[in-house]
Amino acid sequence: MAQSRHAVTKEQSPKITALVVDDNMVNRTIHQRLLDNLGIENEVVCNGKEAVDVHCSGKNFDLILMDMDMPIMNGIEATRRLREMGIRSMIAGVSTRAMEQEIQAFKEAGLDDYQEKPLTMSKLTSIIRKMNHND
Fold first, then answer.
1. Phi, psi for residue 119 in degrees, rounded to 5
2. Beta bridge partners of residue 41, listed in sequence order
3. CA separation for the pair 100, 78 (Å, rounded)
4. Tens place of pLDDT for every residue, the chain, 135 residues?
5. 54-85 burial, b for 16+ CB within 10 Å, e for fewer?
6. Are 78 and 50 in contact (CB under 8 A)?
7. Which of 31, 93, 114, 132 could disulfide-link 20, Cβ–Cβ 3.0 to 4.6 Å?
8. Cα gap 9→4, rounded to integer Å
9. Measuring CA to CA, which residue among 105, 111, 116, 117 is closest to residue 130?
10. Cis ω before 14 (30° cut-off from 0)
11. CA-based diameter of the chain, in Å?
């Protein structure tokens, strides 16, 4: 039987929870399916304000996959607000932006990791490995 090259399996990550924050339905669906394939419980919201609101309601997540460009509240502002609220979740920026200046501003807002879209299983497992090293 062939061995998977991805180190993260459903058995290794049964208790991880994730929040997908993206205004694009296709991206939300892709991110959700990748998380589902790893057995990671997840919820989705459509913008940064909804991400802040869900945390204000008392929910917490181990991982937040945060888009940068969204209406109402973008990923930079949402990340900054979540950090100001004391949220210690791993926040991974996932965006199509390639300008180093914009990526740097996103990181400075409080990101733990940044991955360029499209998010793949390889990129997601890289994020999760970093998250496991931060425990």
1. -70, 130
2. 17
3. 19
4. 444 444 444 444 458 999 999 999 999 999 999 999 999 999 999 999 999 999 999 999 999 999 999 999 999 999 999 999 999 999 999 998 668 898 999 999 999 999 999 999 999 999 999 987 665
5. bbeeeeebbbbbbbbebeebbbbebbbbbeee
6. no
7. 31
8. 9
9. 111
10. no
11. 48
Residue with tokens 């400075």: 108
Between 100-108 and 75-84, two packed helices, what is the crossing angle to 10 degrees? 20
Cα distance between residue 35 and residue 14, in whole Å: 11
| CA proximity to 66, closest of 111, 26, 124 | 111
Residue 70 in tokens: 């969204």
Write down the residue that tokens 């062939």 correspond to: 2
The residues facing 21 across adjacent strands are 45, 66
User: Taking Cα atoms as reference points, which of 40, 35, 106 lies closest to residue 67?
Assistant: 106
Residue 95: which of 111, 80, 72 has the closest Cα?
Answer: 111
Can you say how many angstroms the Cα of residue 29 is from the centroid of all Cα atoms in its chain?
13
> CA-to-CA distance for 54 and 58, rounded, in angstroms?
7
Main-chain phi, psi angles of 18, to 5 degrees: -140, 150
